[in-house]
Amino acid sequence: MKTYKLTAYKPDGELITEETFEAENDDAAKEKGRALLDEKGLADQTHRLASPMGKLLLFHS
């Protein structure tokens, strides 16, 4: 399992949430990241999901 980091921000740059979670691979992490954003109602906020290698998997501004 690899550890991924999801962050979401307000329009003024204030951090809304920062979460780490584990997933087997990048595709599973994307699914989990989208689910977390939907669950918290943050899908339309600026957000990003980064892999342990620093690869940007999800990004919305």
TrEMBL record:
Pfam families: YhzD (PF14120)
InterPro entries: YhzD
Name of the protein: YhzD-like protein
Native source organism of the sequence: Bhargavaea ullalensis
